[in-house]
Amino acid sequence: MKFSLAVIISCMAVPTVHAIPATKVSIAPAATTSSVPPAQAFALVINDLETLGGLFTKIVSDASSIPRSGIQAIDATHADAEAIHLFFEDANTNLNELPPGSLVSSQTEEILELYSGLVNGILSYLNSVAQNADFFKTLSGTSTITTDLLNSAASCEQFESALITASSTNIQVTSQIIQTFRPVDEARQSALDALSEL
Q1: Among residues 7, 33, 94, 135, which is most buried (max CB within 10 A)?
Q2: What domains are there in the chain, each with its CATH number?
Q3: What whole-number percentage of the chain has pLDDT above 70?
Q4: How far is C-alpha 11 from the chain's CA centre?
């Protein structure tokens, strides 16, 4: 992701080809307000990251079933991606509530540990997209998934940037944050490249 956070999500307004099924994920992040106390904002970020684990398990399952289930799997994958995006946006909002440098090292470590726990699921999802790129084209789902990946890139970049701002200015902490996000950024770009080659 990088969870490419500074990129504007609307940079590519490609129309969605498939309708979202009525069984779309019904959970949503808790609404936040401005001027949230730092301790509460941190707790909300943790809650969002903990919830994302189950969502990534689902998107991996749906994306890997595309060769068998076709359009239904593409629609389910898209719905999963939208739900994930909402939680990352909520986490970004809460991170931005934190004053610069307000996270102590143990808090930054906790966030990175939770994110690192998501990485295997994220990579499995992105690898499934790359491996099934030909199915997306055949089923007219390329633009939908490409937009999902670009939205993910924007959210991830913002998440990384906000985490760096809220954390210590120590260069080692900044480097650790950047290195944590790098494998996801590279895998996402590979998936985008595979889709664009079609």
Answers
A1: 94
A2: 37-196 (1.20.1410)
A3: 82
A4: 16
